[in-house]
Amino acid sequence: MTDSILTTQNLTKEFGKLVAVDDVNLDIKRGEFRSLIGPNGAGKTTTFNLLTGALRPTRGTVTFNGEDVSSLPPHQRVRRGLGRSFQITNVFSGLTVRENVRLAAQAARHEGFTPVEEYLEQKDSFDDVNEHTDRVLERSGLLGRGEELADVLAYGDKRRLEIAIVLATDPEMVLLDEPTAGMSAEETRATMDLIDEVLSDRTLLLIEHDIDLVMRVSDRITVLHRGEILSEGSPEEVSEDPEVREAYFGGVEA
Amino acid sequence: MSVASAVAEQVLNGLVVGMVYVLLAAGLSIIFGVMDVINFAHGELFALGAYFAFAIAGPLGGAGFWVALVVAPLLVGVVGMGIERLTVKRLYGRDPLYHILLTFGLVLIINDLITSVWGKSAQPFPIPAVLDQPVALFGFNYSLYNYGIIIFGSVLAIATWLLLNRTRFGMIIRAGSEDREMVRNLGINIDRYYTLTFGFGAALAGVAGIVLGAYQNVSPTMGSSVIIPAFVIVVLGGLGSFRGAVVGGLFVGLVQTFARTYAPFLEGLIVFLLMIVVLVVRPKGLFGTNIGAGEHHDGALLHGAGGGVLSSATRAKIGYAAVGVLVVVPFFAELTGVTYSVTLLEDILIWALFALSLDLVLGYAGLVSLGHTLFYGVGAYASVLTLLHFSPSVFVALLVAVVVCAAIAWSVGYLSIRVSGVFFAMITLAFAELFYNAVFKFDFTGGSDGLFGVDVFYGLAGIGIDPREFEIPLGIMTIDGGIVQYYFLLVVVVGSYLLARRLIRAPFGSVLQAIRESEERASFVGYDVTAYKRRAFVVSGGLAGLAGGLFAANNGYVAPSFLHWVNSGEVIVMTVLGGMGTLYGPMIGAGVFVAAEDILSSYIDQWQLVIGVLFVLFVIFVPRGLVSLPQTIAEQPLFDSVVRDRAKVNDPEVERHD
């Protein structure tokens, strides 16, 4: 159990009388591609928000890289290497592609900035940030597009930029919230290929309700049902679990 | 009179004022709740009610008051509906800032119309003879009219509650304030209800105006004197909450009355202190729901755009040329004897710096500071006090102004930056009003007179220039202290601009722009959004303090009017007029505004009206400001797509943000 990157202990979130997430214990290994699935209302999005820091748990803890991050705000979790992508492409649309990525690279600069650098130096005068930006642009296939406004990118390229921003924050682990929601089969495949291409060396946690997709890409799957973990295991184990079939597939598969 | 009956009388006085507030705040709150419109003109509609009644009741004599009580609010309601149809309606879906700006323009228009029809001085508005007599109740005499206000106000409040909760009209309005799209999807023409709601809110304000006008008198300033307390009430009670408006109105009426009698020092302060405490502890107000908590914005702030038919190189050249002109103006003024132009330029430069400071938070950090004159005023007071008591050096005085204002900005920011949107606007307004009211109370600030007779020394430790003794004859003209003062100002303002540009081009500024684009994303990229906003607010407060300090040092005085909320409104107007989100835009806006005001006011009496109308047109048709005109021109079909593309691709990064 030494190689866990993210664990939760008794993670619980209550909204008044509603228990959205109930005593969830996750243990995600470094390098793993984990998926969190479940029917609507299972508590997927609440769990996601508890992990990113958008919500604070009612009870329980979130541990990242051995550190209790339960009460840290989102930006500090990102700085510790816990990145996230957005369901809807949420880029800095009035800025250029390059500036979008550069901002993320700037945030991830390990040594930070001295006050003089932070307030008085030109933002693009930092070689390390610029090189990091170039590397990310290249890896995400946006190298020639740097000077275009994010606003005018085609949908697929926006998606690419979205992933590039996440990559530029230098995450050890990336939380992906239904990255293919609302996409056609073709777009879904392209997006998953991109994630595979760009983020395959990071630990990934995918929140998703498209079962076929999850079965194809995950190392392990956790099934949530009514806020609780119903089942956990490899895609084969989960798909053969009678409880999962009962609750999730709801007889359709049977 | 016994203690008990004295207290009872205070309670009644408090309820009378409270009822007026309830009527005023209810309309304001309903309009906000339903349409997200912060109606600064509500106070003027209130005054309009009083004046309409005054005009109707006068000629009719005895029964005139009763006729006026019915007819005048209806007229105000019609005016309100007209305002909604012609102006407010065009701005639905834009950020609430634009409603603030629009209604600020309407304030100027309505107020100028009132003074041009009815004059500038207050006039008595007699209450009907039937009500003008004391009644003995609870063991003491009290005016029947005042009892009448309390009863009438209660009846009207209950009727409004019934209207909102027991009728189809009210149901649609309440549904619309929850989710306007849903109501539209149900096939209801919500736009018609918006017009009615605006009219209804205006009519309620009209009633309040009549009631208070007859209680005191009618005057053109009655609107501006109630609008800020009315906002306090609406925010205290919770934006959009009718119950909050009622409880808040009565509460504020009582607190004000009791403070006046039992703790005069706190009068004028306590209400704002309360508001600040409530907002810090419960950002949504006492009865607030999610409505208008700033979490949902229909539209983003519209920033000035560069590019268009002017390239960034052209713009830079225009900038150099402008500075060049500013450098040589004093010589021409001296030669031609038109020294007045130098004074005007000094005003423009100071306001340009003030507008620049506001834009750092408004245009770059997306924070609508509605109380920015707090820093301008405090900077002026701090520098005058330094000059009077510590050092005659203008350098020391300005340094103190900047440091004090930056410190206050840090504290205000610490308390209020976590509350977002409209609430941030209101809390900054409350802080500014708190300081405005406070300077009247203290001896060291000179009370209502302010502080006069300050001399400055342009140097340190005795080495430098004393403008009163400075004179260098230079051919046909003389370089005197006035010219030294002008160039010093020019250097400070141009220097501040260059500093601001540096900040914006540094990593710090790039993060502000990221926050402006998407706060959520900036935070998930790893930036502490709140900390960055607070730092921008500190820089902005310091620069605004510098502007105030410069004005005070140049003119040798400071007065409470430096802290008046109208300044905060004007500086927002300048910023948007020029084009926020660019550094030079607000400075251009300041130049145009100050010059227009100066020229118009010397030729026509109704200059406020003209400025108001121009401004309303501007907010509706050119919301991106003067600096965007080249871009707007380039987007005309007249120009081919090549020009458009070039504008979009090449310019924005370099140009749009500094």
What does this molecule look like?
The complex is a heterodimer of chains A (254) and B (658). By secondary structure, chain A is an alpha/beta fold. Chain A is built from ten helices and ten strands. The mean pLDDT of chain A is 87. In chain A, helix 3 packs across helix 5 (127-139). Chain A has helices spanning 44-52, 74-79, 97-108, 115-120, 127-139, 155-168, 185-199, 211-217, 235-240, 242-249; strands at 4-15, 18-29, 33-37, 59-64, 67-68, 82-84, 173-177, 203-207, 220-225, 228-233. Chain A has two domains: 1-81 and 173-187 and 201-254, Rossmann fold; 88-170, Rossmann fold, CATH 3.40.50.300. In chain A, the strands form two sheets. Chain A has a six-stranded mixed sheet, sandwiched between helices. In chain A, strands 2-1-4-5 form a four-stranded antiparallel sheet, covered by helices on one side. Chain B is mainly alpha-helical and 658 residues long. Chain B has two domains: 22-222, no CATH class; 312-656, ABC transporter involved in vitamin B12 uptake, BtuC. Chain B has 26 helices and six strands. In chain B, the strands form three sheets. A two-stranded antiparallel ribbon of chain B has the order 1-2. A two-stranded antiparallel ribbon of chain B has the order 3-4. In chain B, strands 5-6 form a two-stranded antiparallel sheet. In chain B, a hairpin with a 2-residue loop joins strand 3 (458-460) and strand 4. In chain B, helix 1 packs across helix 9 (222-237), helix 2 packs across helix 8 (190-215) and helix 13 (340-364) crosses helix 22. Chain B starts with a helix and ends with a helix. The model of chain B is unreliable at 290-298 and 640-658 (pLDDT under 50). Chain A binds chain B through residues 52, 73-76, 78-79, 83-84, 86, 90-96, 99, 102-104, 106-108, 113, 117-123, 126, 147-149, 152, 165, 169, and chain B through 303, 502-503, 505-511, 513-514, 516-518, 520-529, 648-650, 652-653, 656.
